[in-house]
Amino acid sequence: MATGESLRSLAFSFRISQGYISRIIHLVVKSLSLRLTPLLIAPPTKHNLIHIAEEFWTKWNFPNCTGAIDGKHIRIFCPGKSGSLFFNYKDFFSVVLLAIVDANCKFIFVDIGAYGKEGDSGIFTKSSLYKQIQTGEYFPRDAKLSNCEKSLPYVHVVDEAFRLETHMMRPYTRGEAKKNYKKTIFNYRLSRARRTSENAFGLLSQVFRIFYTPIALKCETIDHLVLSACCLHNLLRNRYIESTNNYYYEFDKNEAPPTKNMIPIARSGGFANYEGFLVRDEFTTFFCSTQGSVPWQDHETQKID
């Protein structure tokens, strides 16, 4: 996981056959994922979500945000007899890692193993978390915005690959943002909060070098390996925050990100609903008000000194 070495290279290094190494890897990553997941990626409670929302407002200036959702393609070798199921829009075989990330770049929910041909929105709607959201069991009750009497629901921030819903805030299109400055402000504030997910994936790939190369393992083993990496990522983030008291991500700026792995999902969102438009408009109004604006947003959106 840390080096991304091939099984053949490990076989020469440790004088063990490739078949036996693959069995060892399967047993280790399966054990890690089963034991660490309940400790490091446990399902969040409503109290946890309220705490996450407070951190997003304090650190990333987006209120009532309980996480940033994004997905990445994990490059693999073509599984046997799979046809085109794992073949994605970038013309390689992959499985999808879909994750919700908190304000400290830690994973709070992951969905691993979807076919590479699928998109973010379709994968998320099939997840158990989405079913809880639809039944109203996941999010806390609507809360008032900071320094404001207006109450809005708790939301996830997403990109254009997702549909706009009451609890899913995606950016305005470029055409809309160009015509309306308030919508430009909303897109900036949303992107600022959503980049925690990109930071998390960047940190994950730099620590675990296996994500720089195609993974030559069985699909079940790959799922356990990716889940184990996410758990260990959270463990390292906890230790980093405790020791430095700094929530900002740190990675080697001279190290280029993987160009043939961890590829973004295709931008193809689904239908939006009417309530989602209303909630997004309310956030837009709040970000442009004296209670919700930040001093630097005009400079960042218009580059005004």
Could you explain the architecture of this structure?
This protein has 305 residues and is α/β, with parallel strands linked by helices. The chain has one domain. It contains 10 helices and 8 strands. The chain has helices at 7-14, 18-40, 46-60, 120-126, 128-135, 174-179, 181-207, 219-244, 274-287, 297-302; strands at 65-75, 94-101, 107-115, 143-144, 151-152, 155-157, 168-169, 263-264. The strands form 2 sheets. Strands 1, 2, 3, 6, 7 and 8 form a 6-stranded mixed beta sheet that branches. A two-stranded antiparallel ribbon has the order 4-5. Strand 2 (94-101) and strand 3 form a beta hairpin. Helix 2 crosses helix 8 and helix 7 (181-207) packs across helix 9. The longest helix has 27 residues, at 181-207.
**How much beta, percentage-wise?**
5-15%
Helix content: 40-55%
Main sheet properties: 6 strands, mixed
- How many extended strands? 8
The helix-strand sequence is HHHEEEHHEEEEHHHEHH
What spatial form do the alpha-carbon principal axes imply? elongated
Number of domains: 1
Radius of gyration: 20 Å
Uncertain residue segments:
none
Distance between the termini: 46 Å
Mean pLDDT: 85
Family: Belongs to the HARBI1 family.
Protein name: DDE Tnp4 domain-containing protein
Keywords: Hydrolase, Metal-binding, Nuclease, Nucleus
GO molecular function, one term: hydrolase activity
